[in-house]
Amino acid sequence: AVTGAVAAALLLLLLWRRRRRRRRAGGAGRVCVAVLGDLGRSPRMQYHALALARHGRQVALLGYLQTRPHPDVLRSENIRLVPVAELRGLRVGPKLFQYVLKVLVQSVQLLYTLLRIDQPSYILLQNPPGLPSIAVAWVAGLFWGSKLIIDWHNYGYSIMSLSHGRSHPLVLTAEWYEKLFGRLSDYNLCVTDAMRKDLWVNFKIKAVTLYDKPASYFKETPLDLQHNLYMKLAKDYEPFKPRAVSPGAEGSAFTERDGKSGNVLKARGRPALLISSTSWTEDEDFSVLLRALEDYERFIKEGAKLPALVCVITGKGPLKDYYNGLIQKLHFKHIQICTPWLEAEDYPLLLGSADLGVCLHKSSSGLDLPMKVVDMFGCCLPVCAIYFECLHELVKHNENGLIFRDSKELAEQLKMLFLEFPTLEGKLHSFRQNLRASQELRWDQSWDQTVLPLL
């Protein structure tokens, strides 16, 4: 053990000396943006890569290539995708042994990948997942003479605590690890002011708050593009198919295109479109929404003047099959639910076409904000969001949306918002007007003000 520790110390000393020599050697203009996760489902890291590319930096965007990144990323001449092979099938021995083995293999794999790219001047790393990526990125930084920037989206240990419990040895080890290696970074970004304060108080890490902001393509969708999207989705998903179509017209459940003039109109008696997006993980309890929808169905049966509802829940993740099983057991007459995976270019179009967004994200740390709500607000889409501590930094109750605490409260909010739908009066319309008037900074402007000075 002593010999191993001495060897590790000598290795770090050699890397440190190499870093001092390499500081003058180059790498200027090159940045590695890394996430030990699926790049297609890491929008903030894609936005970082696009912002860097826009300023002429050569970007190595490193991560798993499970789902296709945004077309803007694929089209950029300054961004090169660097795939990391995802580990599967490590199912030998007890679970703890499997986890330790996975971390060790990932460490070697990630370090090998980081040392094969062109020398970067900065490594911009997403956390979580931080185990083992923070330590590996730091070692790679020593080798290359690169500065390490950690973008704190949340705490990895707090996510682990959802399934293991706060006092589990793995969770305590992960917390110690994040605190220790997090301090080795050169710069730190975080997603909320509450997290910035917590990083300083509990980790002694100074961070700069870079709020998630919508990209420019998150905006209200024109009616003709709405119709094209609905017709495309109707090929695969029953809720988008038309109930009835006028003679000579082309129709979806929500729109009709006149065969002669080509004009698109909203369908008469159309259902309301409610959208939620999720990674189907433990920090989002979709049974809350399903129970609220049961109450909504009951309100209609009791005579409330509410529209039929199409509820679209997008995303991929480990609990999707579980919730799909629950959905199949529901037998609604006035509500249809579908759970598609949307292409990156279709997701903003659907948000910009919807009537209401619902967010069930409950931060494991109480310190991060749901990016899906940021995107919804970019599309001027009002939101009902479940309460947690720092949510007020994003959702202003009764101004741009509503905050609820349980399924009963959500059901009452849906009833209030959709009463007499689709008249242009009431809270739903006023929330949308407030979002149109707010005109907050978009991602590019916010990034230029906050991150560019660090580089």
From TrEMBL:
Pathway: Protein modification; protein glycosylation. GO terms for cellular component: endoplasmic reticulum membrane. It is found in: Endoplasmic reticulum membrane. Residues 268-417 form the Glycosyl transferase family domain. Belongs to the glycosyltransferase group 1 family. Glycosyltransferase 33 subfamily. It holds the Pfam family Glycos_transf_1. It catalyses: an N,N'-diacetylchitobiosyl-diphospho-di-trans,poly-cis-dolichol + GDP-alpha-D-mannose = a beta-D-Man-(1->4)-beta-D-GlcNAc-(1->4)-alpha-D-GlcNAc-diphospho-di-trans,poly-cis-dolichol + GDP + H(+). Keywords: Endoplasmic reticulum, Glycosyltransferase, Membrane, Phosphoprotein, Signal-anchor, Transferase, Transmembrane, Transmembrane helix. Its main location: endoplasmic reticulum. It is a single-pass membrane protein. One of its GO terms (molecular function) is chitobiosyldiphosphodolichol beta-mannosyltransferase activity. Mannosyltransferase that operates in the biosynthetic pathway of dolichol-linked oligosaccharides, the glycan precursors employed in protein asparagine (N)-glycosylation. The assembly of dolichol-linked oligosaccharides begins on the cytosolic side of the endoplasmic reticulum membrane and finishes in its lumen. The sequential addition of sugars to dolichol pyrophosphate produces dolichol-linked oligosaccharides containing fourteen sugars, including two GlcNAcs, nine mannoses and three glucoses. This is Chitobiosyldiphosphodolichol beta-mannosyltransferase.
